Amino acid sequence: MRKGLKILLAGFAALLVLALAASCGKEGGDARFDDYERVMIMVSAGRNSLSSNLLDDLRELREGYVPAWNEHKALVIISHNLERPYVYAEATEAYVIRLVRGRSGQVFADTLKRYPETTVLTDKADFEAILRYVGAEFPSKHYGMVYSSHGWGFLPKGYYNHRDELEKDTSFAPARRAPRASVRMPSGAFPYVPDAVDGEPRTKSVGQEVFVENGATVAYEMDITDFAAAIPYHLDYMIFDACLMGGVETAWVFRDKADRFIGSQAEIVSDGLDYQQLASRLLEGDAPDLEGVCQDFYDMYKYAKGWRQTATVSLVDTGALDPLAAVCKLLFAKYRSAILALQPDRVQHFYSGDHPWYFDLKDVLIQAGATQEELARLQNALDGCVLFKRATPRVLDLYDVTVFSGLSMYLPSVPGEYLRSYYRQLGWNQASGLVE
Predict the structure, then answer these.
(1) I need a surface site. Which of 57, 286, 301, 407 has the fewest CB within 10 A?
(2) What residue ranges of the chain are covered by domains with CATH 3.40.50.11970?
């Protein structure tokens, strides 16, 4: 894979050396303004198996469009990465860095603030504090965020890799898991489970930060509701470069937080978005080109070979989700028994392995027996909120994509009372009534 095996000499250390050098100079980002036209916040949460990939992404970001020192636009990076891949025992600081093009045209990485090694980007309080600092340093009416890390959509933290422990349900085959730790887990942490083993594609699977604490390798994650609640200002867009974030449940969480939402319904190849074009799409023009972001991502993979021909993505108008919820509420109530009886293998799904929680919203109702007239009303509501969508014919060379509405959803016929109980309190469920 393009990024997975690169040596990190030009990665984390080089980025920080550049940042420290620039922060002492006068040629770079000294110009500051009371009001910024637009601020792009790039969150690189890479204290996990994706660290090398995320550092490559930051290098590519630096190779593309970077605002000049005298432009009223800002490209701000929040970074917490490993110095060496998979070496979780080594503590690393988190950084807020501004990329800026100086008077000579050279790009500088200006270190604005360091955070202690105990910082956890998947901790709501830590994440919110850093975002508030960025907002204070770069006041603006127009913020946007790109978040790159692992992700698992609407699931409660820990559930993706520790379903069996949380469900205590013997009807499931055991999921792949880490050896049981011989020490007590820190509060809020789970035993770390590697996201890929030999022979499996590495994908970007909100957020994961991995540490070694008290002799155990542990992972901290964050519920999507806590993630959204930690953002202290309104966003023009929320873009997830992470797996499985393109569900209706996740988009609904950002209904009052971001005008537009971009996510992938399936897993994302660990190379992620087209970072050389990303800042140009989001900052350079008169307005963010969000369709262009989606198209660039799709174009990176549509002609790839084998499992790398993998891309699902949609752009959602979060302010237009209410009509979809209204239509779904009627149909979910009418076809409740049929939905609860659906076999997962009959419905278009967007997952690999034993993680059956992501299904195409429209296909759920097709398979439940909705009439053509009902499906037309559903499609009209989908057309109102899904502004752009693309999907390759296959994902990870494991399954075909034959139905693609642009939004995935939970299928309540999949066993798991712990998950159903959690799902009942999600905003989307309260609006649509999927799970009683």
Answers:
(1) 286
(2) 8-153+222-314
